[in-house]
């Protein structure tokens, strides 16, 4: 059985970037563990040092409902500052990811594209590469970077997301959309990129690029092949 980890910065990143493939993994009987590193709410509050407990609890309840739709076996939260992870020593982020990886021993890891506009996404991408470096005895054989709408498409032109891997999500697109609908506080109306309509459009576009009815696209960041 494959063990899979999805390591992202904010609540809803896991659904936007990886909801279809997460549902596919869980349907196949794979253990899917998700780590969300930043609170996801402080950037919208006048005083980031005083995040209302109710706002954080409500967002995490949405995350739990969304991940239940996708069959996530384990959902964990850290408390790094929202959109301020550049103020945190990178080593602190790496150590939190290392602990998560050591506990769950995933063979496949999904995370952010390091060229995203969002500062937290870039830091998480770098920290994942460090935490999952291929030392003797390491469990991780594949690391994939995905695209998170409202961040990836706005990145610098010289660091654009160019996919090298596609997964057929025609059978899991509806589950992805239901999971995204659980994030009522994060959704926006079309044509905002963080809308269900746009998520559908992206899945259709990525599918057309690889001959599927719908797809999620990834970049292969690292791959080890212990099998023939």
Overview of the structural elements:
It contains six helices and seven strands; from the N terminus they run βαβαβαβαββααβ. With 228 residues, it is of the alpha/beta class. The chain has one domain: 3-Layer(aba) Sandwich (Rossmann fold), CATH 3.40.50.10320. It has a seven-stranded mixed β-sheet, sandwiched between helices. The longest helix has 18 residues. The model has no long low-confidence stretch (mean pLDDT 94).
Give the topology, please.
Layout: E1 3-8, H1 13-27, E2 31-38, H2 53-70, E3 74-80, H3 90-104, E4 108-112, H4 119-131, E5 142-146, E6 165-168, H5 173-181, H6 196-210, E7 215-223
Parallel strand pairs: 1-2, 1-4, 2-3, 4-5
Antiparallel strand pairs: 5-7, 6-7
Helix pairs in contact: 1-2, 1-5, 2-5, 3-4, 5-6
What level of helicity do the residues show? 25-40%
Instruction: Please count the beta strands (DSSP E, at least 2 residues each).
Output: 7
Number of domains: 1
Order of strands, main sheet, comes to 3-2-1-4-5-7-6
CATH topology: Rossmann fold
How would a textbook summarize the main sheet?
7 strands, mixed
Report how far apart the termini are. 17 Å
Average of the residue pLDDT scores: 94
Name of the CATH class: Alpha Beta
> What is the percentage of strand-forming residues?
15-25%
In the CATH hierarchy, the architecture is 3-Layer(aba) Sandwich
